[in-house]
Amino acid sequence: MGALMVIFSLQKDQRRKRTDSVEDELELSAVRHRPEGLEQLEALTRFNRKELQILYRGFKNECPSGVVNEDTFKDIYSQFFPQGDASKYAHFLFNAFDTNKDGSVSFEDFVMGLSILLRGSVQEKLNWAFNLYDINKDGYITKEEMLDIMKAIYDMMGKCTYPLVKDDTPRQHVELFFQKMDKNKDGVVTIDEFIDCCQNDENIMRSMQLFENVI
Amino acid sequence: MAAGVAAWLPFARAAAIGWMPVATRPMPVPPREKKKSQDQGLLVLNVSGQKFQTWSNTLERYPDTLLGSTERDFFFHEETNEYFFDRDPDIFRHILNFYRTGKLHYPRQECIAAYDEELSFFGIIPEIIGDCCYEEYKDRRRENQERLQDDEDDEKEDVAPLNMTFREYMWRAFENPHTSTTALVLYYVTGFFIAISVMANVVETVPCGTLPNRAKEISCGDRYALAFFCLDTACVMIFTVEYLLRLIAAPSRYNFMKSVMSIIDVVAIMPYYIGLVMTDNDQVSGAFVTLRVFRVFRIFKFSRHSAGLRILGYTLKSCASELGFLLFSLTMAIIIFATVMFYAEKGSTSSKFTSIPAAFWYTIVTMTTLGYGDMVPKTIVGKIFGSICSLSGVLVIALPVPVIVSNFSRIYHQSQRAEKRRAQKKTRIAKIRASKSRGTNAYMHYKQYNGHFLTHSSLEEACKEAGQLLVGKPNIPFESHHHHLLHCLEKTTNHEFIDEQTFETNCMEVTMVNKSGSRTSSMSGSSSPHGLSSCCSRRHRRKSFSLPNSNNQELSTIQIRERPIVNSRSSLNAKPDFETVPLKSGHSYVTSSVVTLPPAASSLLTSSDNGGSSSSTCNYSQSNIVRVSAL
Fold it and tell me: Which spans are transmembrane here (chain A) (predicted)?
């Protein structure tokens, strides 16, 4: 009987080891990422040391593992827009920040994106915005892509708006946008048309300078 | 809003640049901010005020962690020449000890989630926790995961998905009877009928007095055969209907049919149908009688109604290995002792131990300490082995039982906790919702009062000379930046945020307007309900402008039509009626304030195709001047 008990307990151990190894695999696959050193990042971006320090601390606090995955990103962005649903727009933003398309935004991606948005030239900012709208990154903004983006922006407003957001409000907005931007009326907006048109529009140029002193 | 998220506000504001090219109206001016003093080495580690000191060699022992790599440079604070971390000092103590001794310990009094967070912040993997603390850490972690899993399951249960088909609705009603009243009624009715059926089965075997022409007593079942048959029929009908409904409503019928509860249901009602089908054949009626035994399985249908019964079943299932061990060791012991007793008692005359299988009965009765006394050993050897048998029986049975008991207790306590948490969750969710609505109300208030605030400051500015910089504004906190962000979104989409109440009244008005039909009647209709408060009537006035326009008009035409409003007030200040009263006196200042905030007038004129250029330029210059002085 003693031998049987020993055999029995060995069996139990094996079973436990099997389940543990599955757990362990899941733990080890939790990504931990460390960014480049402060000097390299200073060289790559237009932030100075102090600003990078501040940015990193905030980033690291929210994401101790050092990378943001899309769900966390959506959560964080949605906190700023409690009335509506910011997840679709956050998805597009995430793709715009995740330049190497690996499914997560590291601190380098984050800070390089911010550097363009806050310290870049108007040309660079417009480039970034074009990149955001061009969902499949083929160099053309089609009406469908713009409609997706527009719907995502209107979703952030939620339903309690004045006047009421109707079903074709985003579509109308897209039509307006294309009327303004699509010079040769070929149904797509290229990067040159986009930049040209924005540079001629005082409003847009002025609004691009809006967030210069955010950090 | 979570405090940590405040750190992401700069990012959210930067990302707002993505809205700029599609915006049709210009953006509001951002709030001014004072230059904040920044926090930011001899190896002093200052963790939330508690100072730790260590050699840098110590930290560099583990170069793939935060403290051991260049990552700690991000946390260097030049003014005090130390590394500052805004984290928990108590847990940090253990982390620093890891660098010093090479062993990571898990403090028992800390919350497992907090500890995990600190570890991941400092880049240390939990696997290196020393053997002394690893078991505890793993156990606590598993408990936490189970609790999270429970929470998720509960959430899925409580949140009713919209647009459920009738089938999904039925299934939900069956599985969670507390969700709707019909489900609850069904639940109690089936419970009642299960009880009735079981009691009828029991009562019909009770002897019930004698028939006049027979001496033997007959059971109640035979005496009132018809009544019992009717009762049985009724119960089986209800059970059949319930089973069929469940089968129809089940999302996966195959899985449902495989599940234990459905098998119990089938077994409970089968005997009746088999009994109907079978004729009064003598041969078969014997089998029919045994089938009746299966009717007692109806009592297991109660497990849907009793959580305790389900826990018991679940415990037995989860302790299957312990039970298996118990059974196996008992069988072994029975065979050994039965053999010994048989051979010991073989010699004695008229012994009941006729064969080894016959001795099994004695061994079982003795090992479980029952001791009926129908079979007793007579020889001395037999008695010696009999006593050894009863002593070992106690041990063998007592060993696996505590494991089963502890399993049961753990599962039972878990379910108790789940019940408590479910009750607490409702209050917690209500509080969270209240604080969320406070956040959105704060934005509404900002919109209402900001105009007031800024006109005061612009009054001051107008008193001073144009060109004097920096009116003393108070330090603008996080909230004002957030409100500015929301304001930008409003401008991008050309729609405004309103709170729930006004949204509801708007919906009511829209339906009223739609009923009335024509445009003119809509204008009169919207102004007719005088009973509403002043804010609503003011909105009617605004609505009378935009409602006829909002039906399939270009956005540019809407903007042109809104021009008349602008001269009186900017759209920002247009909402609360009471604002107009104090500001009407300082009319010139009102105009300047109009242009300070989203320069709606100038933008409208420029964005429409044929804006009056002269007026636009003069507004522009005004906006430029005021802009400079505001900054």
Answer: none
